[in-house]
Amino acid sequence: MNSHLPLKKKPRKTLRQIFLIPVALFALGLFGLILALVETGWVDMISTLAISTSLLAIIWGRLFKKRPQ
Amino acid sequence: MLCLTGLPLIFHSEIDNALNPTDWQAANPDGEPLSLDELLDVALMKADGAIPLFMSFDTDRPVINVTTKADPNVSGSQFLFNSFDLTSGDLVPPADKGGKIMDFILQLHTDLFLGLPGMLFLGFMGFLFVVAVVSGVVLYAPFMRKLDFGTVRTKQSTRLKWLDYHNLLGVVTVAWVLVVGITGIINTLEDPIVETWKANDLKDLIAAHQTGEVVTPQASLDAAVEKAVATSPDKVLQFVAFPGSSYSTQSHYAIFLHGNTPLTEHLITPVLVDAISGEFVGLREMPWYSKALSLSRPLHFGDYGGLFLKILWAILDLITIIVLISGVYLWVSRRGRKAVFP
Questions:
Q1: Residue A56 at interface with chain B, using a CB cutoff of 8 Å
Q2: Strand B235-241 to strand B51-57: parallel, antiparallel, or no bridges (unpaired)?
Q3: Complex-level ipTM
């Protein structure tokens, strides 16, 4: 029925769109790595969480994201 | 190889503890600790006339460690390492089961058993690794122009699937990989950095007091340590290098202090005290490049933030191995495609 409709082209992303999440993860990871060096005790948990965001991003990408065919 | 050997090194202390379960208790846990002079006498009696080289302190139990050597002027003479109960002077049983394996892994990771050339070679490999990571970030953009972050195309070709995995795993771990890579490069420069520190910043301090012969210490070690700590009240004792050792002069106690905050505990300050007269000779704060080296060690090995951080370090290490292997796979499969469709 819709076979004659033109294929919808996906718009090209800007550098800002491409690197927004990676830069945020980079900043969080770096913050966590340095925080653990500067402080100790319960702050270690915060730094571990900050570094863990990269793993959470992978889990989110694999489990919750809609996969393209 | 570096990722694989680095994995057990992350859990170095846990592996040591597991291989050496001990129910050792101090003889007088609530008693007064012996003085350093008393403990040194005990150590020298056990070492049968050898001279002391280093004295260090366990951080988690009342134990001191004394390294002695028969003759400092004879190269290759045997070192003797003994641990003593700080509260009684009794010998503490060695906990070195598995130590040889861990030392083997550490040396393979550090210098490939080649000494300085091996370290510099691995440093150069580390530099290439960092260049590869940065180029990977640059190449990430053209591949992701039409894809959302986190996309993995599992239903198309195997190559596309691994390309997406490589991009995703690589880009989310960039901060950790760069920190571990760059601090690894700095660690490979340990020998040149220490030599530069000795040749520049410590030269005037050592040269003015260097004598030809190794002296036999006569001044009280306790008094010398007290004097050293008094010069830097915000620091605590880390270890002592005796005259004739590689970290001291021929005639001084080199007393190494470190800071008492999580950050400054990695930064050391050597204080020289005359081993004959007991007089304070001088101290030198670390220059910036030595501080960079000291802070690079924990940032590289990940042993500064508790067990959770170590587990995280291990997971990120495994992810890096996957990124490296998938990178090689993509490169090889691309060459194969080029050969078929030039």
A1: no
A2: antiparallel
A3: 0.83
